[in-house]
Amino acid sequence: MERKYCGKAVVARADLLVRRCDTGFEDGNYGPVGGHLDGGESIRQAAIRECREEIGVEIDPGGLEIIGVTHYCSPEGEGVDFFLSATRWAGEPYPRSECDDLQWCSLDVLPENTIPFVRRAIGRHLQAGIWFDEVYLDVDWPPAHPLEKGDCDADCDR
């Protein structure tokens, strides 16, 4: 059995979260802007593109910093997320694509329906300064042998 891993760039401006919709992954829950890398683009380029597409802002590349990486596995899928912090952008954010609401939040008061591994990533990467994390939610993971377990096979075309 072949395992698939999805790499995503996630802009973790922790005080700005969007409610996902029409994506097939964690719809109805809040998380940072983000998405899969398109072929041939860097993590930073993907983050800038996702912000433009999802919330209509232009990120200043000089104000974008990688703050952490999380490998997650949940019943909804498996992936590796690169969390970035954006400190400078042009435009006023608004729900444009793949989200139907956005909220400015305190790190200590995230929406109740924040994606669980995102809640943990915000706490660990932003609040505790831990750069790498692994999260296994509601699955028997890691398996004794990766080829014997298919619980977290991800479909990167979601």
Structure overview:
The protein is of the alpha+beta class and 158 residues long. The protein is 16% helix and 33% strand.
Features:
158 residues; alpha+beta; Nucleoside Triphosphate Pyrophosphohydrolase; five-stranded mixed β-sheet; 2 helices; 10 strands; 33% strand
Secondary structure topology:
Blueprint: E1 7-11, E2 16-20, E3 30-31, E4 33-36, H1 43-55, E5 58-59, E6 64-74, E7 77-86, E8 89-90, E9 99-104, H2 116-127, E10 132-136
Parallel strand pairs: 1-7, 6-10
Antiparallel strand pairs: 1-4, 2-3, 2-9, 5-8, 6-7
Summarize the structure.
This protein is of the alpha+beta class and 158 residues long. It has two helices and ten strands.
What is the name of the CATH class? Alpha Beta
CATH topology: the name is Nucleoside Triphosphate Pyrophosphohydrolase
Radius of gyration: 15 Å
Strand order of the main beta sheet, please?
4-1-7-6-10
Q: How widely separated are the two ends?
A: 20 Å
Please provide the ordered H/E string of secondary-structure elements.
Answer: EEEEHEEEEEHE
Q: Give the helix level as a range of percent.
A: 10-25%
What kind of oligomer do you see?
single chain
Tell me, what's the shape?
globular
Number of helices: 2
**Which spans have pLDDT < 50 for at least 5 consecutive residues?**
1-6, 145-158
Question: Can you summarize the main beta sheet?
Answer: 5 strands, mixed
